[in-house]
Design brief:
The protein is mainly α and about 140 residues long. It has one domain. Helices cover about 40% and strands about 5% of the residues. The strands form two sheets. Strands 1-4 form a two-stranded antiparallel sheet. A two-stranded antiparallel sheet has the order 2-3.
């Protein structure tokens, strides 16, 4: 999820909280791994991957990362939810697959698909200690 400010930048407070989570959670999981026999986990760092897709959209096959596909106002960052917030005017892009974000807060279907693929069979550079495919194999599912 992304929360934009009026000038089209990500919220500093939300970013700070996400960074703190990315520091705390892996160390907690590592501690649990030593305390609980047989404890296995999968941790995907969405913040780092998401930030990279915003900074380098073409690397992921996108043309637009700052402006959302559907919404109102500058950068289509007004939370109208398709006119459901008493704001009747909003716009919808013609090519959603070219956008990292569908609306002011949520990734596009294509961006979500890329994330799920990374979670399922991504390398240890983006997911720790096992991707989901490997984790399910451990469990015999």
């Amino acid at each position: 999820m992304r929360t934009l400010t009026r000038n089209g930048t990500c919220s500093g407070k939300a970013n700070k909280l996400a960074k703190l989570l990315n520091i705390a959670l892996p160390s907690i999981l590592t501690k649990l791994e030593t305390q609980l026999q047989g404890f296995e986990y999968s941790y995907f760092d969405f913040y780092t991957t998401g930030s990279d897709s915003i900074k380098n959209p073409s690397k992921y096959g996108f043309k637009e990362a700052k402006t959302a596909c559907c919404d109102s106002g500058p950068y289509r960052a007004g939370p109208t939810y398709g006119g459901k917030r008493r704001v009747e005017e909003y716009s919808l892009c013609h090519h959603p697959k070219k956008y990292v974000f569908f609306d002011a807060n949520y990734p596009s279907e294509r961006a979500n698909r890329q994330v799920t693929q990374l979670m399922w069979h991504g390398s240890l550079s983006v997911i720790k200690t096992h991707n989901l495919e490997a984790l399910f194999k451990l469990e015999g599912v």
